[in-house]
Amino acid sequence: MTYQEKKSIVSVISAILIFVSYCLFMYPRYPGEGVESSEVFHYWGSFVLYLTLFSIVAHIIISILFNIVFRLTTNEKEPAFADELDKLIDLKAFRNSFFVFVIGFLFAMGSLVFYQPLHVMFIILISAGFISDVTGSVTKLYHYRRGV
Length: 148
Description:
Elements: H1 3-26, H2 37-74, H3 84-113, H4 118-146
Helix pairs in contact: 1-2, 1-4, 3-4
């Protein structure tokens, strides 16, 4: 397996673990039904903001740990450059990830059109971000395995 394939697998697993662990941490803190709407907005705003920060920090730490373990186990360095194939695969992964997020965003806005509660919109939006992250990593893994 190549470095890029291993990195994609680690990225998928870490995205799932980060998202699930954060959601399990934040779920008990939901203010509940019948609470003033400003508290609900505060909860969802902090949920998204802290998830973004937590995810970025965790991905950086996991990437550093992955590079350390990769170097110790294989005695190889991380590739110092990206060739045309790497760039093409990154573009395809970004396209697929962006497409999934935009579809999720449209579903989230559609939930407001159909008078769904606000928490439905936030759940769809957050889930779309998570699924788009996983989609990008899976796309990279697929194209490194099967070709472009």
